[in-house]
Design the sequence.
């Protein structure tokens, strides 16, 4: 990273100013960010943990991943103290010494594990089957060292894999390589943020990221070159055709940029509705001038313009830019291979004369120029069985060339691998539907996965029915008959992903997609679901907290759903912050049930003392309340005519805030120096609490329920 002394000027001025105040904690935080309180070796250890150490790795003489060499033996066995990690790796209890077979090791992350197919079907199995067809049953073995969620630690694993005496190693990684930085980088990052805004932060982070991954690849490649072990790199690809990051407003921009950006966005959307592609393109490019490429929304609009104009290559470039746009954002986003990762792999593989499987080029060739999409991907980066077979055929071709055994084109090997059974395909597709829905993807994509799952294996309908029960019941997931039935079905992938990593939530989009797909094969589960929802979640039974994860998980904006996520690794906010003009909430009711809403909210960045906030119920019944910058509480009584059986939707429409770009960026820079995750997005409104209950259950005497719908009875406490 560029460590120019001029970038420290702002940091030093801030440090000097704070030194004269009583804010000692903040001063201490700033000093700590310089690593002045750490010995050099301590700083070096922390840098290594962050993936910033650039020296070639030195591995332990008896450990490879979770396996450790057995005393006085050449066998490696799984470590009991790593039991909690066993499920992340292949189910291999013991790795024996190499025998006569050519030993090939596959190293990688969840894509290389065969995410949503494993443990029944994995890339390592496919690769071994292809090699056996070429070298004979006793000619090759593949050791599966892929690990779910493997990041920059791939370097340590690749170095230690040499202990297993491989004849060739395939590395399929890069989706989890995030922009790493050490604590001593914070002053530079914060200064760039304060002076240039988020584009400056992105530029510096990209520079650091490029240095880190280039060094990582070079360290591995040079070590293998010294050992004389052939190395095959697989450059990962992304689902450009189907995957869309959730669209939000732009983060804090300088020079009143947020307001101008929003105006341009409205113009683009209006022009697209009118079919005026030229006008839409002009306004979209103006958006890029304003935000300098830090949000995917602009590139998605340009990609749509290119699609309508029939320019496939321009569409591809815009979608790649959208994939790369959020590299600076520390908030939750789907793993992906950035362009800088792909480029570094290509350059270093060429430098060290390693074999390379370039999936972006390979998939483009296979699809005859088409965009990589659901044909090859289950979600953002995990491959379908078809994608796995193509990738492993190319990897096998590279291994064979490395071993000087043959020069076979990948297409000649593509049909030599294992083919999963229809049932395994159906399991993976249904799990992909769940995964895509929980990552805010479109109804069309989720529904298509469900439909194709049923086409492959109609018996997956039983799994879908159990899943509906799991998501609808109030009882803990594992304490249910549905979970017991799923376990009895003996579907390893379903048991692993649905019963171990799933969180119960309302899942409106997903369950609607499941119901629609079941109807196509003559199963109508709608009435049963609606009845179960009323019995378990209706406001006629008990009041509901609309900020509870079960009801909040329907949000299509991850910044907002982070408030209540059960994932402890994700930062939680103190209260709900709306980062867009509308916020949606859902509750279950019965027709003609009068409902009471209790809302505590504020407009912290309002341009006026008070502004109107609109509250809509089922997009029909609406009213407005006056909200100010301080917290206020409103009791809203909703007439029975407004409620309907099943799911009801409340939409809060916020006024446009007073975007304080420079001030907000200065605050974000200060938070960064404190080691906190900065708030990069403007808040349209904030909610402290939001509950819904049956108005007939109120304890304060009889209530006056208005029958003149669509008005709401509104009172402020």
Sequence:
């Amino acid at each position: 990273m560029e460590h120019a002394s001029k970038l420290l000027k702002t940091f030093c001025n801030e440090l000097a100013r704070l030194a004269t105040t009583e804010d000692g904690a903040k001063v201490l935080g700033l000093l700590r960010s310089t690593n002045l309180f750490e010995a050099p070796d301590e700083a070096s250890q922390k840098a290594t943990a962050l993936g910033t150490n650039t020296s070639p790795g030195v591995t332990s003489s008896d450990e490879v991943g979770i396996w450790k060499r057995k005393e006085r033996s050449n066998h490696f066995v799984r470590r009991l103290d790593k039991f909690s990690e066993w499920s992340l790796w292949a189910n291999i209890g013991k790795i024996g010494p190499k025998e006569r077979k050519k030993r090939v090791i596959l190293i990688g992350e969840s894509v290389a594990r065969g995410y949503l197919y494993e443990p029944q079907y994995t890339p390592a199995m496919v690769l071994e089957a292809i090699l056996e067809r070429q070298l004979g049953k006793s000619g090759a073995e593949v050791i599966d060292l892929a690990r779910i969620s493997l990041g920059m630690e791939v370097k340590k694993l690749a170095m230690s894999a040499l202990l297993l005496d491989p004849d060739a190693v395939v590395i399929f990684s890069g989706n989890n390589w995030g922009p790493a930085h050490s604590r001593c980088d914070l002053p530079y990052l914060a200064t760039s943020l304060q002076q240039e805004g988020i584009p400056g932060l992105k530029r510096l982070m990209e520079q650091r990221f490029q240095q880190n991954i280039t060094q990582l690849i070079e360290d591995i490649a040079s070590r293998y070159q010294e050992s004389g072990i052939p190395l095959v790199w697989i450059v990962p690809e992304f689902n450009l055709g189907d995957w869309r990051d959730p669209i939000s407003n732009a983060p804090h921009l300088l020079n009143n940029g947020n307001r101008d950006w929003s105006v341009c966005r409205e113009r683009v959307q209006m022009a697209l509705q009118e079919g005026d592609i030229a006008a839409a393109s002009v306004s979209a490019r103006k958006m890029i001038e304003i935000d300098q490429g830090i949000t995917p929304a602009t590139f998605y609009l340009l990609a749509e313009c290119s699609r309508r104009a029939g320019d496939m290559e321009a569409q591809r470039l815009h979608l790649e830019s959208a994939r790369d746009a959020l590299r600076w954002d520390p908030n939750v986003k789907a793993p992906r291979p950035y362009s800088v990762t792909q480029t570094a792999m290509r350059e270093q593989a060429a430098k060290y004369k390693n074999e390379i499987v370039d999936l972006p080029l390979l998939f483009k060739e296979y699809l005859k120029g088409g965009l990589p999409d659901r044909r090859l991907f289950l979600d953002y980066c995990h491959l379908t069985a078809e994608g796995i077979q193509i990738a492993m055929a190319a990897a096998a071709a590279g291994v064979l060339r490395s071993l000087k055994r043959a020069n076979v084109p990948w297409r000649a090997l593509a049909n030599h691998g294992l083919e999963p059974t229809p049932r395994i395909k159906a399991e993976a597709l249904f799990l992909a539907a769940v995964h895509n829905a929980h990552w805010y993807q479109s109804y069309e994509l989720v529904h298509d996965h469900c439909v194709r799952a049923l086409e492959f294996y109609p018996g997956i309908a039983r799994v879908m029915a159990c899943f509906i029960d799991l998501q609808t019941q109030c009882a803990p997931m594992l304490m249910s008959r549905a979970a017991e039935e799923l376990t009895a079905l003996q579907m390893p992938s379903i048991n692993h992903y649905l019963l171990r990593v799933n969180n119960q939530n309302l899942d409106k989009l997903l369950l609607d997609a499941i119901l629609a797909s079941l109807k196509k094969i003559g199963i109508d589960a709608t009435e049963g679901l609606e009845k179960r929802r009323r019995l378990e979640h209706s406001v006629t039974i008990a009041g509901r907290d609309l900020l509870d994860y079960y009801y909040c998980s329907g949000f299509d904006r991850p910044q907002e759903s982070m408030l209540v996520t059960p994932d402890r690794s994700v930062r939680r906010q103190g209260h709900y912050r709306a980062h867009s003009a509308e916020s949606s909430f859902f509750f279950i009711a019965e027709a003609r049930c009068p409902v009471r809403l209790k809302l505590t909210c504020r407009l912290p960045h309002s341009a006026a003392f008070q502004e109107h906030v609109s509250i809509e119920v089922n997009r029909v019944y609406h009213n407005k309340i006056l909200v100010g910058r301080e917290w206020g509480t409103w009791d809203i009584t909703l007439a029975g005519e407004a409620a309907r059986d099943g799911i009801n939707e409340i939409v809060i429409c916020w006024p446009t805030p007073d975007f304080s770009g420079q001030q907000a960026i200065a605050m974000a820079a200060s938070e960064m120096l404190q080691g906190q995750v900065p708030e990069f997005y403007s808040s349209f409104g904030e909610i402290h609490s939001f509950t819904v209950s049956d108005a007939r259950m109120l304890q304060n005497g009889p209530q006056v329920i208005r029958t003149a719908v669509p008005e709401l009875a509104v009172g402020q406490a």
In short: The radius of gyration is 28 Å. Residues 198-227 form the longest helix (30 residues). The longest strand covers residues 685-694.
